[in-house]
Amino acid sequence: MEIKVEVISRETIKPSSPTPHHLRTLKLSSRDQGATFLYIPVVFFYAPSTIHATFGGGDDNGDKYDDVFHEISQRLKVSLSETLTLFYPLSGRLKNNLSVDCNDEGADLFEARVINNCRVSDILEAERPSIQGMVPLAPPQLTDYNNAPLSRVQVNFFPCGGVAITVHVSHKISDGAFYSSFIKAWSEIALGSPNTVVPDFTAVSSRFPPIEDFPVTSLTFSGKGPKVVSKKFVVDASKLAELKAETASASVPQPTRVEAVTALFWKCALAASRSRFGGTRKSYALTGAINLRSSHIRKIDVTCQSRFGGTRKSYALTGAINLRSKLIPPLPKHSLGNVVGTFQIIIDNDDDDYESEVTDMSGLVCKLRKGVEESVMQNNNLSTKAPQAKKEYDMEIYFHSSWCRFSLYEADFGWGKPTWVGVVGQGSISPPGITLMDTRDGEGVEIWLALIEEDMAIVEANQELLYYGSPSKDAL
Fold it and tell me: One Pfam family for this entry, by name (predicted)?
């Protein structure tokens, strides 16, 4: 089911109180300088039943909800304004990739109506929900970044009475961990609860100061290459317990749920790729993220054998580990910026134990655990030197990111917690990989697979994947 919306209003929301002059200039960290401007895109869906329980009603006629929608809109605007006073950099504008001018220009807020009779339940029940329509206008071009808002919101009203709120924060100054801090603070303010979030805006840039001559890198990807399709699966609590037991080993006796689900995905993806290449030995890399959706998109060449013969160009995405608590000394939990460290797991076609490496899930978990631990060690000796050119790879690359344990389902703005939280991808130009989300009860894992069409046809019929993960609406 594809959502079609009509934008009915656009407004700039400014902080409720002006930012003091001495706080107007905020330095970027060297890590922020290398980050893309792309917006972190998360959509919070609230079912009609949730809205009815708070405001009354129940008629599916959209006109009946105008007063309710107006009240929701006003509450969001007022609370966002108050939140931007606390998170004042999100109201500023980028200044030459060196700093943020905290000038209180504000955040964009769009209001939109769903116009194709799509209901919230239609989205929840779809195996391949298309929620691109929930996203505000396309991101600015590279030359416009200095004038672009660092945060944007789109409030989407369904004719059935449901609501979906898309919240964008630029990856230039925020990673997934800080994004979740912002959402937590905003929902607390909207609900009238005591604010428990105390953001820190200088700790990261003090640890990793900006570089004056930081090289300009390509911050977008063209999306050229085979078409990528997405599909979601859900591993519930009982199946997750089985999977963790299956992937355990003497080296990693208690794998995390992210490790276990990632190993399952990778095993299935490698089986599909090997089938596509006729069993040819290839090198594989899992490049991924733990505890955040990373979009550090850098244009690097990855040459690999094409299913048509010859070579093709692809793109590698760099994921990250949330390092705030892992650095020595640690950084504040709610610190602004991209506090991330990358990891990459490689299966080389020259390895003697290649065949077992691509089929043994417990071995894949061990590789994942080792890669993350090595990344943490390396990032405790970080250099602030400008990044060097990337080398070429001859391998298949998969992107991995996890939004688990970010408590996004706690985002109650005054009409209950979300029925579903989804991350908006890049559609058919997404790179192959996996994104993990909490299920609403916090006990299971929702898997979003993005694979080229040929591989997806194989993976979605994989009996091991179907044993652990359900594509059905009943799992939601």
Answer: Transferase
**Residues whose CB falls within 8 Å of the CB of residue 447, separated by 6 or more in sequence, listed in order:** 232, 233, 234, 235, 261, 265, 434, 435, 436, 469
List C-alpha distances in Å: 24 to 99, 107, 175, 197, 338. Answer: 10, 16, 22, 21, 20
Distance separating alpha carbons of residues 147 and 56, to the nearest angstrom: 41
Q: How many CB atoms lie within 10 A of CB 85?
A: 16
Tens digit of each residue's pLDDT (9 = 90 or more) over 135-148:
776 555 545 688 89
CATH classification (class only), 228-406+426-475: alpha beta
Average predicted confidence (pLDDT) for the chain: 81
- 252 closest CA partner among 371, 75, 349: 371
DSSP 56-105: ------GGGGHHHHHHHHHHHHHHHHHHHHHTGGGGSEEETTTEEE----
Give domain limits for the chain.
Answer: 5-207, 228-406+426-475
Return the pLDDT at 217.
53
Whether the pLDDT of residue 314 is over 60: the answer is: no
Q: pLDDT, tens digit, for every residue of 318-332?
A: 345 788 999 889 999
**pLDDT for res 400:** 82
Helix (H) or strand (E) holding 52: helix 48-55
Residues 341 and 358: their CA atoms lie apart, in Å, by 25
At 66, list the tokens: 């105008």
Rounded Cα gap, residues 387 and 295, in angstroms: 17
| Same fold: 5-207 with 228-406+426-475 | yes
Residue type, 113: R
In the set 171, 296, 334, 400, the catalytic residue is: 171
Catalytic site includes residue 412: yes
**Residue 206 and residue 369: Cα distance in Å, rounded?**
30
Using one digit for the tens of pLDDT, what is the confidence trace for 430-472? 678 888 899 999 999 999 888 999 999 999 999 999 999 998 5
Buried (b) or exposed (e) across 182-217, using 16+ Cβ within 10 A? bbbbbbbbbeeeeeebebbbebbbebbebbeebeeb
- Return the CATH architecture of domain 5-207: 2-Layer Sandwich (3.30)
- Rounded CA separation 365/59 (Å): 50
Q: Do 103 and 216 form a contact (C-beta atoms < 8 A)?
A: no
Strand ranges, E, within 104-162: 107-114, 151-157
Closest CA to 406 of 431, 435, 378: 435
